[in-house]
Amino acid sequence: MRGSATVITSTQAPRRTRIQVEKRELILEAALEVFSTNGFRGSTIDQIAEAAGMSKPNLLYYFRRKEDIHETLMERLLETWLAPLRELDDIGDPMTELRSYIRRKLEMARDFPRESRLFANEILQGAPRIMPLLAGELKTLVDEKAAVIKGWMRAGKIARTDPWHLIFAIWATTQHYADFDVQVRAVLGPNRGGDGRFEDAARFLEQLFLDGLKPNG
């Protein structure tokens, strides 16, 4: 009796070559610049192709639609943006953990201003392309870390406050230095508007938040 042949199929996507990986990264870097400057609606495939130094047909070989490029960038952005919050450790000293979080967020404002503007543009449009991520992964993480902060409050390690609004306030004050960088530098002037502005901001925000969170008595 002859055995029946076994057909083996794979659902895995084929591995990309080094050149394909490099081309995708080139496109994403160009798209980040275009999207963060013009917003999603004001950006076109032609603009991204020009910024990447390639033809439109060549770009479309790697990404079929503008939406696919934007989605890839937003997924990467959220993964990077949420990493500092994920590291907030419930067994650590609250003041040390919060100081580190503030510092990390300011470092990201300094090092990833285009990503911050890309995210802000999406939110200002009503988050039409990332609402499932905001209502799902982001909400779950924030709720989890709010519970950590509540635990510190119950233990008397920090003053009682609303943990969700505390997280929002840290987001707002740190990301301001990315989203409104031109304004910050203009107002601070040439003597204070250099790279030292981030260290000045860190010291101020540490004082603002951590002094306000010291437990009573």
Write up what this structure looks like.
With 217 residues, the protein is mainly alpha-helical. 72% of the residues lie in helices and 0% in strands. The longest helix has 24 residues, at 131-154. The N and C termini lie far apart (86 Å). Mean pLDDT is 90; it is low at 1-10. Keywords: DNA-binding. This is TetR family transcriptional regulator C-terminal domain-containing protein. Residues 21-81 form the HTH tetR-type domain.
Question: Secondary structure elements and their pairing?
Answer:
Elements: H1 18-38, H2 45-52, H3 56-62, H4 66-86, H5 94-111, H6 113-124, H7 131-154, H8 163-179, H9 181-192, H10 196-212
Helix pairs in contact: 1-2, 1-4, 1-6, 4-7, 5-8, 5-10, 6-8, 8-10
Protein name: TetR family transcriptional regulator C-terminal domain-containing protein
InterPro entries: Homeodomain-like_sf (IPR009057), HTH-type_TetR-like_transc_reg (IPR050109), HTH_TetR (IPR001647), Tet_transcr_reg_TetR-rel_C_sf (IPR036271), Tscrpt_reg_YcdC_C (IPR013573)
Domain HTH tetR-type: 21-81
Tell me the major beta sheet.
none
Order of helices and strands: HHHHHHHHHH
Q: From the alpha-carbon coordinates, what is the Rg to the nearest angstrom?
A: 22 Å
Number of DSSP E strands:
0
Instruction: Determine the mean pLDDT.
Output: 90
User: Unreliable runs, pLDDT <50, ≥5 residues?
Assistant: 1-10
Give the helix tally. 10
**Could you tell me the strand content as a percent range?**
under 5%
Fraction of residues in H or I helices? over 70%
Termini gap: 86 Å
Q: Structural class of the secondary elements?
A: mainly alpha
Large-scale geometry: globular
DNA-binding region: 44-63
Protein name: TetR family transcriptional regulator C-terminal domain-containing protein
Domain HTH tetR-type: 21-81
InterPro entries: Homeodomain-like_sf (IPR009057), HTH-type_TetR-like_transc_reg (IPR050109), HTH_TetR (IPR001647), Tet_transcr_reg_TetR-rel_C_sf (IPR036271), Tscrpt_reg_YcdC_C (IPR013573)
